[in-house]
Amino acid sequence: xxxxxxxxxxxxxxxxxxxxxxxxxxxxxxxxxxxxxxxxxxxxxxxxxxxxxxxxxxxxxxxxxxxxxxxxxxxxxxxxxxxxxxxxxxxxxxxxxxxxxxxxxxxxxxxxxxxxxxxxxxxxxxxxxxxxxxxxxxxxxxxxxxxxxxxxxxxxxxxxxxxxxxxxxxxxxxxxxxxxxxxxxxxxxxxxxxxxxxxxxxxxxxxxxxxxxxxxxxxxxxxxxxxxxxxxxxxxxxxxxxxxxxxxxxxxxxxxxxxxxxxxxxxxxxxxxxxxxxxxxxxxxxxxxxxxxxxxxxxxxxxxxxxxxxxxxxxxxxxxxxxxxxxxxxxxxxxxxxxxxxxxxxxxxxxxxxxxxxxxxxxxxxxxxxxxxxxxxxxxxxxxxxxxxxxxxxxxxxxxxxxxxxxxxxxxxxxxxxxxxxxxxxxxxxxxxxxxxxxxxxx
Length: 443
What we know:
There is one protein chain. The protein is an alpha/beta fold. The protein folds into 2 domains: about 1-55 and about 360-415, Roll (Urease, subunit C, domain 1), CATH 2.30.40; about 55-350, TIM Barrel (Alpha-Beta Barrel), CATH 3.20.20.140. The protein contains 15 helices and 19 strands. The protein has helices spanning about 80-90, 95-110, 125-135, 160-175, 200-210, 225-235, 235-245, 260-270, 280-285, 290-295, 315-325, 330, 340-350, 390-395, 420-440, and strands at about 1-10, 20-25, 30-35, 45, 50-55, 55-60, 115-120, 140-145, 145, 185, 190, 215-220, 250-255, 275, 300-305, 370-375, 400-405, 410-415, 415. The strands form 4 sheets. Strands 1, 2, 3, 4, 5, 16, 17, 18 and 19 form a 9-stranded mixed beta sheet that branches. Helix 8 (about 260-270) links the parallel strand 13 and strand 14. Helix 2 (about 95-110) packs across helix 15 (about 420-440), helix 7 packs across helix 8 and helix 11 (about 315-325) packs across helix 13. It is globular.
């Protein structure tokens, strides 16, 4: 399938950050020509009439398993949010509810121009979320959450043994890694230190290294979390993760808000990836991560919305805006400039998952993961003599995205999802939520 986009303003995000006027040609899953007037034959021609063509957004921390629970856990801090609401709800999932939850999140992501995510599922039924990812056309690095430290706060529905947790994760890796023309990759995803034993984390380090797999977990999001880690491990979070062999370029850490100097040094020296989730951090009152400082020191930073119950939306444009704005009162108006923030949402995400050679920019030979953004709304007008990165970060919203393509497949066009039956999903998701909430006694 050859698809030709005509008359676009192409935000390439290539090495010199070119903005190119003209056409872009996709052949199967790859970009084969960019710029000027392209006169090659195509199966489909789409005239963009000057709209922006951007690299698909890459969000490096999402919980598709939680989308069904949007609005069920508001105005709580992290540990209460988990204990009182999220852990019971996650434990109540059945295969159909998890599939519906994943599809809900994926549909929202497509409508907002996100084409790739790093995802953390729940303890059970993860294969059904994987099936939703494959059916919808999303690109994802995803894994089963691992929780073998059976303390009193974790419901019995989420408890698992160390051996069972490792085996289930390995089985998922062997069955699904590389499926969907490589769109689905499988990671090992222990939830965080306080819900995992030392044995499990050391084994995750060993197995992931043997399989050259990524590890994705949370760290230093909340001060109460850090106090528990220090009391049980005798050291701070990042120091402990380094000690058990997890730090490095194949580790993606969500949040990293409360870091001391030694921990910052470890993250920089080991090239551990940091996923910054500004909206979630604000809503859970967790804090503001030291992103400008870490960036100055060469840290690898990317952006994520986190889960729907701790953010209430999965909008990559809001994450860009918040990532820029929350730092300015602390560090001045020139910190986190718009172009740099847009880079975090595209190339930063590609680097985090080791796919900068394939994703994150619009260049010949790269994967055709892209989005079309219209700047015709009053909130983006006038659209002449304005920096395009400022428009994308400070003005545009997810609702301005009018087409999303993943791996050469158009998954959303003219605000209509093409791989998801929305009316059927809404009906099924509502039934799933009622069933899960009834099962766990939260109705």
